[in-house]
Amino acid sequence: MLLGKELEWRHLRYFMAVATELNFRKAAESLFISQPGLSRQIKQLEDVLGLALFERSTRKVALTAAGNYLMEEVGFMGNHMESVVQQLKQIAQGNLGELRIGFLGSAMQNIIPELLLKLQELHPGIQTALTELSNRAQLDQLLHDKLDLGFVRMARVPADLKMQPVFEDTFSLVVPEGHGGKPFRNLNQFQDTGFILFAQEYSPYYYDTVMSICEDAGFTPKVAHKSVHAQTIFTLVANGMGVAIVPTSFQEGFKLNVDFIPLDHLPQRAVLSAVWKKSNRSPVLKHGLELLFGEDKV
């Protein structure tokens, strides 16, 4: 397949091998071709493009700025082609295609189950693939065409993506069952207690929101533990290792020895949003978005 008068897919495949290994000998071995033959192919590619993709010396091989850019773009093309092939296989089997969904664990409380039930009822020919990922990992996979739809808690996303809220929740304080017989008055009575939070790298927006809730109450929380799983957080609270602040809907689906104290008087809200790539033309994504928001709002 020609990409231009002289540029072919094999040139890009050879380029990616060298860009990954940064070693012509190892790249040639992985491609099962000779090292001189690989060098000629890379030189031909550079001649066609009219620029250098690698900086070569007797000691090392490094990508130029142009080489780094090409590596990113070829990686994107490869991911997109992989997606196209997967969709073709689904269509060949009589399905409409596959909807690849990334999500934070909290989306599994209600949003995703409801979406899956609607898809099954109205579009049984759509297959789904679900992957639990952090906010940042979802954005990366959406941008590189490895996901079609994500569910995140973020204030903003890159310009190539579109984000729309799907669920707004209040927060609750999670304490050990019975919380020592002490009545709840206000949040600052826990200022000397350790807090168990979702890790900042998992959801920076959520982490910052919880910090702001405590700061509005007049203190900075003492972070005792961090986790990326609600189950772990609740288990730690139940065992007296600290308290936590989580979206109120988290109390559904867990049977642990903890109490939820509503903080619905606070202005902060836990907003779960759907996010997708604007240029994604998948018909199955369109069906999914219509079920989430309605045909006139997509």
UniProtKB/TrEMBL annotation:
The keyword Nuclease does not apply. Keywords: DNA-binding, Transcription, Transcription regulation. The keyword ATP-binding does not apply. SUPFAM superfamilies: Periplasmic binding protein-like II (SSF53850), Winged helix' DNA-binding domain (SSF46785). It comes from the Bacteria. InterPro entries: LysR_HTH_N, LysR_subst-bd, WH-like_DNA-bd_sf, WH_DNA-bd_sf. Residues 7-64 form the HTH lysR-type domain. GO terms for molecular function: DNA binding; DNA-binding transcription factor activity. GO terms for cellular component: protein-DNA complex. Gene3D superfamilies: Periplasmic binding protein-like II, Winged helix-like DNA-binding domain superfamily/Winged helix DNA-binding domain. PANTHER family: HCA OPERON TRANSCRIPTIONAL ACTIVATOR HCAR (PTHR30346:SF0), TRANSCRIPTIONAL DUAL REGULATOR HCAR-RELATED (PTHR30346). Belongs to the LysR transcriptional regulatory family. This is Transcriptional regulator.
